[in-house]
UniProtKB/TrEMBL annotation:
Domain Thioredoxin: 40-121
Chain spans, region Disordered: 1-21
InterPro entries: Thioredoxin-like_sf, Thioredoxin_domain
Stored SUPFAM superfamilies: Thioredoxin-like (SSF52833)
Protein's recorded name: Thiol reductase thioredoxin
Segment forming the signal sequence: none
Comp. bias (Basic and acidic residues): 7-21
Amino acid sequence: MPRWRRNRGERVRGQGDGGRLDISHPRLDAADLGAELGARATLVQFSSAFCAPCRATRRVLGEVAGMVPGVTHVEIDAEARLELVRALGVLKTPTVLVLDTEGRVVRRAVGQPRKADVIAALGEAV
């Protein structure tokens, strides 16, 4: 079971901002995600092709996004978006980020989440 954690004041290498990206309060937009942000929150899932927990995570996040008005689920192929993966420090799939309305990462978890845990993590974003 994944542990949801808040972002810490870490800094990692990334594109833009002189090769550095502050992930203490990273902010993603529609161009980064390839999709529009949700009106209340966005669930971002980093997946890989042969990841069985990623398929289950896709189902759980899709169900939660369908249940909670204004919440969008966006799945990103980690292999196709290595620059973003590196900038955000994604090391394993599935990794799930919860974004608020402005695209700031408010929660992060690695591994297959339970539906109740996703709903609880959304509480900080909405």
